[in-house]
């Protein structure tokens, strides 16, 4: 880190000792998993820098922005529309925790059999080690899966200001009307806390900024269908994870720089891995930073990850929002149209997710799919069955991995992944 930020962390109310311990573990994991990779694009240095400053400079930027009147909004889900937050000159940050921290604290208020993502968020909050949570002016909790919506009832006791957003469960007209009314309500809330009105101009600017960010991610995704692959799955995942934290304009510019470099690599036939390596599509639950366990195993067993069908991946970044419309209402309708297409497993039925997985498998020439389930995540665990059937019908092998954030099952997963990769390699 470029500076000593202990005074800032203290002013945010963090437990400095616990926070130092967390940073040490994270820093070491980053060295072991990311910096140990060979032949990375030069332009990934920006993302290495972002990670080295993820609790430092970026938090300082948030605190400085807040001092200038920019509200900080924390979110746990890709259904919280960044376009609206940007329209009121706010900053949206992701709060999903991708690591286990102080599970004993989380389990004081939650049952043990809840997904690691929810328990991780509680552990970070209760141990006072998350500066994003501490800096946020408003935490948005969306009523998606049962685990989240019930645990938010307790989580709000650990936040300064909590806002519940209701979510539809079906892709019906009624569901769409509910999403629209929730986005309208959220827009009013943002206007109230920022003291700014949402106008056609600022909302259109917000939409364009988020579209640019998603477009850069789309460009990056397309470059991964090359042979050999010009970027590792780990690095692409990292970019997808940083999508939720970084300044949007700077992030977009940095992703486009990576894409420029990857285009050069492709032109010269350079890849990060051997072109005969099995190509894997990851699908399933979101992998929030620093959840790198499974991708690190996959890419250390002679395979390369070519896509993520995940909210930290293409499920979250696909689809742009239309910018046509001359009223706030019509632009908001465009936003609702875009978000209503997100095929999270909380929807019933959810056929477009199956179509998207098959489409990604074809688009990125995947030889196999690994379906990543967080233990106790009902929606994705149940959907993994139909996903397996659909892929089997299409002749694509699938491996289902159920895990959590602990490292206890690492060797067991490695054995299963190795066997899967070997089976694919023989085909
Ligand atoms: S999986 Fe569903 S609930 Fe989770 S972040 Fe994605 S859209 Fe939100
Ligand atoms: S991973 Fe599954 S159980 Fe956990 S928060 Fe997301 S949808 Fe809910």
Annotated CATH topology of the domain at 6-195: Rossmann fold
H/E series: HHHHEHEHHHEHEHHHHEHEHHHEHEH
Average pLDDT across residues?
Answer: 97
SS content category? alpha/beta
Helicity range of the residues? 40-55%
Based on the structure given, which CATH architecture of the domain at 6-195 is correct?
A: 3-Layer(aba) Sandwich
| Uncertain parts | none
Main-sheet strand order equals: 2-1-3-4
Small ligands present: iron/sulfur cluster
**Molecular shape:** globular
Please tally the helical runs, counting DSSP H or I stretches of 4 or more residues.
Answer: 19
**Rounded Rg:** 21 Å
- Beta-strand content estimate: 5-15%
Q: Could you name the CATH class of the domain at 6-195? A: Alpha Beta
What is the end-to-end distance?
47 Å
Largest sheet: 4 strands, parallel
Number of strands: 8
Description:
There is one protein chain. By secondary structure, this protein is an alpha/beta fold. It has a domain at 6-195: Rossmann fold. Helix content is 54%, strand content 10%. It contains 19 helices and eight strands. The protein has helices at 6-11, 16-35, 45-52, 57-67, 82-87, 103-109, 116-126, 131-135, 146-155, 173-194, 200-223, 233-242, 248-267, 293-299, 314-317, 328-340, 351-363, 378-393, 410-426, and strands at residues 72-75, 91-94, 138-142, 162-165, 279-284, 304-309, 368-374, 398-403. The strands form two sheets. A four-stranded parallel β-sheet has the order 2-1-3-4. A four-stranded parallel β-sheet has the order 6-5-7-8, with helices on both faces. Helix 6 (103-109) crosses helix 7, helix 10 crosses helix 16 (328-340) and helix 14 packs across helix 19 (410-426). The protein is globular and about 60 Å long. The model has no long low-confidence stretch (mean pLDDT 97). The structure holds iron/sulfur cluster (2 copies).
């Amino acid at each position: 880190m470029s500076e000593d930020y202990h005074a800032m962390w203290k002013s945010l109310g963090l437990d400095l000792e616990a926070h130092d311990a967390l940073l040490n573990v994270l820093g070491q994991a980053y060295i072991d998993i990311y910096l140990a990779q060979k032949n990375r694009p030069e332009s990934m240095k920006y993302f290495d820098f972002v990670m080295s400053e993820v609790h430092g400079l970026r938090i300082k930027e948030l605190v400085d922005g807040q001092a200038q009147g920019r509200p900080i909004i924390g979110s746990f889900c890709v259904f919280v529309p960044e376009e609206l937050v940007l329209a009121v000159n706010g900053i949206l940050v992701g709060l999903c925790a991708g690591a286990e921290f102080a599970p004993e604290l989380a389990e004081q208020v939650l049952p043990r059999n809840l997904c690691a993502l929810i328990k991780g968020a509680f552990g970070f909050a209760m141990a006072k080690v998350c500066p994003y949570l501490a800096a946020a002016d408003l935490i948005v909790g969306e009523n998606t899966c049962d685990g989240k919506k019930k645990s938010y009832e307790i989580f709000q006791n650990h936040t300064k200001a909590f806002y519940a957003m209701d979510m539809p469960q079906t892709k019906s007209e009624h569901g769409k009307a509910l999403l629209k009314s929730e986005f309208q309500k959220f827009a009013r809330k943002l206007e109230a806390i920022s003291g700014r009105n949402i106008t056609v101009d600022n909302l259109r600017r917000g939409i364009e900024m988020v579209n640019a960010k998603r477009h850069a991610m789309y460009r990056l995704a397309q470059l991964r269908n090359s042979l050999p692959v010009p970027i590792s799955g780990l690095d692409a995942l990292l970019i997808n994870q940083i999508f939720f934290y970084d300044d949007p304009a700077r992030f977009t510019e940095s992703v486009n720089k990576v894409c420029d470099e990857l285009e050069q690599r492709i032109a010269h036939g350079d890849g990060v891995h051997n072109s005969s390596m099995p190509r894997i599509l990851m699908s399933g639950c979101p992998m929030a930073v620093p959840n790198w366990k499974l991708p690190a195993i996959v890419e250390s067993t002679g395979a390369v990850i070519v896509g993520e069908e995940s909210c930290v991946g293409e499920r979250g970044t696909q689809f742009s929002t239309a910018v046509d419309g001359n009223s706030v209402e019509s632009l908001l309708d465009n936003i609702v149209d875009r978000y209503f297409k997100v095929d999270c497993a909380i929807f019933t039925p959810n056929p477009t997710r199956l179509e998207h997985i098959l489409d990604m498998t074809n688009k990125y020439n995947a030889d196999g799919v690994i379906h990543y389930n967080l233990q106790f995540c009902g929606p994705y665990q149940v959907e993994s069955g139909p996903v397996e059937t659909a892929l089997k019908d299409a002749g694509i092998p699938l491996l289902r991995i159920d895990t959590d954030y602990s490292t206890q099952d690492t060797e067991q997963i490695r054995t299963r992944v190795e066997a899967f990769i070997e089976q694919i390699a023989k085909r």
